[in-house]
Amino acid sequence: MTHPLTLLGIESSCDDTAAAVVRGHQVLASVVYGQTSLHADFGGVVPEIAARAHAEKLDHCVEQALAEADLAFADLDGIAVTAGPGLIGGVLSGVMCAKGLAAATGLPLIGVNHLAGHALTPRLTDQVSYPYLMLLVSGGHCQFLIVAGHDRFERIGGTIDDAPGEAFDKSARLLGLPQPGGPSVEQAARSGNAGRFALPRPLLNQPGCDMSFSGLKTAVLRARDGVVSLKGGLTAQDQSDLSAGFQAAITDVLVEKTRRALDEYLGLAPARPIFAIAGGVAANSVIRDQLQTLCRRLDTEFIAPPLHLCTDNAAMIAYAGIERMGAGETDDLTLSARPRWPLDQRAAPMLGSGKKGAKA
Ligand code: KG4
Ligand code: ZN
């Protein structure tokens, strides 16, 4: 038997600087430095600030990951790095760091698509076999992928405008709830009446698996303004009812579109049907529970990797690198950073895929 590959992974495509060491399916170390506080005053990720912070933190992250794994460069088989898509300054910081390390150590360099990192995570955590259906749902992305190989992704639907996490964040802002909006809206919704406000389910009755969430956010704005003009402000109960209505609308759309995506996937007659979810919105327990119920009904295994591996991290990059290297694929020092890099090159470009853009 060949020994499992051990790779260092580096991730810096948005606002998390991360390094990890993975051996086979085992995460030996995973270090993530978030930048949330650096961008807090600006209402979004500032690319220039992000790139500088990555450049400052990358070396420390790599050192810390190796120390935690108790390994030296000589123990590694290669270095995997996110080469896109993402904010170009951040991606460049990571790629330059990885190239420097590869040149100095002579280790092979492997460029990884950040979205492939997310999409292959269920193989790292649960060793699932191909093909499986994946819903990647975060602050910047929302897409259904049929994953048929480490470089074979078919996108069968996605958002045409905002991503759900972004809609949660914007709705929280409208309701005066703290950021990030997902957890605070979920919390407020617990004591809310989802039926008090009739909020739309955009594209629910359109065929296919595409989704739209920007109209929903506008509907929350109108409903809020209606209450404010009547009472002069929002009570905690109003916040809860609006949160519950909003969360129910998002959940209904995700569940119905997942049902259709599963229909298409199950048509491939996979031996062991699997539906996996990743991204920050996968933390929402109402969404998670309803998707799990749907899967149970359709005899499909539901997989939700632990949250720290669902959100941005470098273990998923190291693992995707292991799959590429295992297939005999490596890059050289001409590897370039790609701000745009769709996983499914054949799919028609989406109108939008989350206005936070680069965060995937
Ligand atoms: O995957 P992630 O950490 O970063 C992105 O790639 O965007 O996801 C962050 C997003 C944020 O928009 C956040 O509000 C959302 O995930 N989120 C949630 C929950 N926890 C985080 N959305 C709904 N419910 C939650 N419990
Ligand atoms: Zn991501």
Short description:
With 360 residues, the chain is α/β, with parallel strands linked by helices. Helices cover 44% and strands 18% of the residues.
3D structure, described in words:
A hairpin with a 4-residue loop joins strand 1 and strand 2 (16-23). The chain is globular, with a radius of gyration of 21 Å. The strands form two sheets. A five-stranded mixed beta sheet has the order 3-2-1-4-5, sandwiched between helices. A five-stranded mixed beta sheet has the order 8-7-6-9-10, with helices on both faces. By secondary structure, it is of the alpha/beta class. 44% of the residues lie in helices and 18% in strands. The model is unreliable at 351-358 (pLDDT under 50). Zinc ion binds at residues 114, 118, 138, 312, 360.
- Shape assignment: globular
Report the C-alpha radius of gyration, rounded: 21 Å
Q: Give the strand line-up of the largest sheet.
A: 3-2-1-4-5
What's the helix-strand series?
A: EEEHHEHEHEEEHHHHEHEHH
Helix coverage percent: 40-55%
How many individual β-strands? 10
Average pLDDT, to the nearest integer?
A: 92
Q: Tally the helices: what do you get?
A: 11
Strand portion, in percent? 15-25%
Main structural class = alpha/beta
Low-confidence stretches: 351-358
Could you give a short account of the major beta sheet?
Answer: 5 strands, mixed
**For the terminal residues, how far apart are their CA atoms?**
36 Å
Bound molecules: 5'-O-[(R)-(carboxyoxy)(hydroxy)phosphoryl]adenosine, zinc ion
